[in-house]
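EI: anyone free to look at a 384-residue chain?
SC: sure, send it
EI:
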Amino acid sequence: MKASMDKNSALLPEARILDVFKGKRPSAIPFFADLTYWYSAEVKKKTLPQKYLNDEGKLLLYKDLGCGAHEELYLPVHSTVFKNVHVKVFEEEAKDGTIRTTVYYTPYGELRKVDKRSFISFSTATLRYPINNEKDLKLLKFIYQDIEYTKNAEVFKRQEFLINLWKGWGIVASLPPRTPFQRLVVEWAGAYNTFILEWRNKESLREVLEVMYSSDDPIYEFIVESPARFVYFGENLSSDVISPKYFEEYYKDYYTKRVSMLHRAKKFIYLHIDGKLRGLLPLLASTGIDCAQSLTPYPAGDLKVSELRKVAGDNIILWGGLPGIFFSSAYKPDLLMNLLKEILDLCKKDHKFIIGVADQVPPDGDIQRVKLVSNIVNKTTVDS
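SC: here you go
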């Protein structure tokens, strides 16, 4: 009886993905899906069955679909406290979404950011970035000098709860901030302003990055202490935005330092790279990062499935392969099935590949396609 139970647990998604991260041949091919956008849309439309609500309901949903969870289960383990900066958030409902304005009041001026959360895509877009010139950079520098990070004990308890609840079905991860340069690109200035500032005000920009770099140190100390075994670098990297030159200058050393510290604490790291791949994918392994996650292949991306391993090299785990758009009812199921067959042929021999939706099932997604993929993956054997 015990041998049978052990065999069944070895076939669950968590066991499969752990084998991959430990460098072992998994007992079966892992398949993980991000259902967060689809789930939010179903809740908003009030079409989600009652049994799938709340923590236990989400777990039941993934069990019914037969796939592993990850995006539901990452959390930042720190809290942010300001000494001299005051932050106020204002929200207003628009016809098609929620507009949120965040204002940072400092003794030397204010920074203002405007975001919009769409009721259609259930994603967020920045309408106005707070950093536009050198004066704004100085304010941002002051903000990060003013920050104090504290350990969030409630999140530690939450992680322990989720680890126990999702045992076998999901991986719980700690979420640090993006790297300083990527934070400018995604959160503070946008790509255009960041590169203009880097060209015109490089010294001032570097000063801000150094302050951000140092201010992150306590966060990684908290992550080392955290219960979660995984760490999620939610970078949203794309080679058409960040060139290899910028990666070498602003990302590589930061990743290498953080990864080394986390590996000493026996943590596994996966990094979210969900755009163009060709320029950056070959560079990730040199930082020590364990896994490149959310890889979107051709025709949605710039690399074919057959090219992913050749470009990435042999020393990094690859995670992704199934473009989220192919789960939309706007696309014929054959597109998804043909690509899945190609990926499964690869996974039978490449034991460092995790099949995943790249990067999420869309709000109009056909959820039965997730179950279909699970059924096919679970019937596929792994070559020795």
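EI: The first strand starts at residue 31 and ends at 32.
SC: 👍
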